[in-house]
Amino acid sequence: MDDLFNIDLGALAYRAAMTATWVKVTVFFATWLILWLPVAIPLAGVLKWNPTQPPTGEQKVPILASLYAIAPVIMALAVWVEGTAWSDYGLTFQPQTFTSLGLGLALGVFSLSLVFSLESLCGWIEWHFKNFKRLWSLWLPILGLGLWISWTEELIFRGFVLSELASDNSLVGAAIASSLIFALSHLLWERKQGLPQLPGLTLMGLVLVVARWVDGGSIGLAWGLHAAWIFALTCLDSAQLISYPKENAAWIVGMGGKPLVGIAALLYLLATGVGLLGFGSQLLG
Asked: Which residue has better confidence, 60 or 202?
């Protein structure tokens, strides 16, 4: 009978804390959605977007822009409610943050250049050099868009979500959970077409967690890497600089023009993560 009253209060407190953490994360995303709806509903009408269907390329940019424009407001509310600071979520406006951002941009663009050069040598992709002139009018707005999207996603997923989950879980558990949430969030736009990308997006999230960790808790390096990947891949796609002549190599370079579905992207992300663990702290001084 005494065993019935032998309650492990520590275990109960731990479970309660974990539950509270997940409630915070859920409320965060629910509040974001609720505040977005007054903008999203009329915008969907203007764009003739059926929310039951994935948005087209032309529809996706304004829809995503309207959602991400609200993100700083949501973060400000979270900081106010939690009584925390932006730096607790990895965002500081110190020179080192922007140094890390620049380093991440350089590393991301340079490393992707090596990957695409290797794929070209193997005959898996074909370059269309005549289209390079298109980049003159595209690269700057794409860079700006990439910096904005990556800043928002890093602040949310590697900032708020990771920090909240890590407060009551192991860093590894929080890294996996936040990366899964990051990957699953892309299904809002891609739906079934995004399912094959889930492993790649999850691994990408984990690599960006490593980037924040080696950067001493700042999102600067992760922000730069993420922005570089968006910038480079969007430039290639928008300017139609490459094509994939060999269908039998799709499992390597990615199916349907989606690199994250291919084994090359997964190996690249693994190599990036290992490289950050091995040399990240030395690169950041």
From this structure: 202
Instruction: Report the alpha-carbon angle 111-188-16, nearest 5.
Output: 95
Confidence of residue 259 (pLDDT cuts 50, 70, 90): confident
Q: Which pairing describes strands 242-243 and 126-127: parallel, antiparallel, or unpaired?
A: antiparallel
In this predicted structure, what is the pLDDT of residue 9?
47
CB 250 within 8 A of CB 262: yes
Asked if residues 273 and 210 have their Cβ atoms less than 8 Å apart, the reply is yes
50-69 CB burial, b ≥16 within 10 A, e <16: eeeebbeeebeeebbeebbe
Residue closest to 203 by CA, chosen among 243, 160, 263: 263
Whole-number Å distance between alpha carbons of 18 and 24: 10
C-alpha 185/C-alpha 25 separation (Å) is 13
Nearest to 209 by CA among 41, 90, 39: 90
> Cα–Cα distance between 126 and 237 in angstroms, integer?
13
CA dihedral of 260, 98, 206, 175, whole degrees rounded to 10: -150
CA-CA distance, 232 to 276, in Å (whole number)? 20
- Contact by Cβ (8 Å): 284, 103: yes
Tokens of 191: 């739906």
Mean pLDDT over residues 206-225, rounded?
Answer: 96
The model carries a pTM of: 0.90
Measured distance CA(207)–CA(226) in Å, rounded: 10
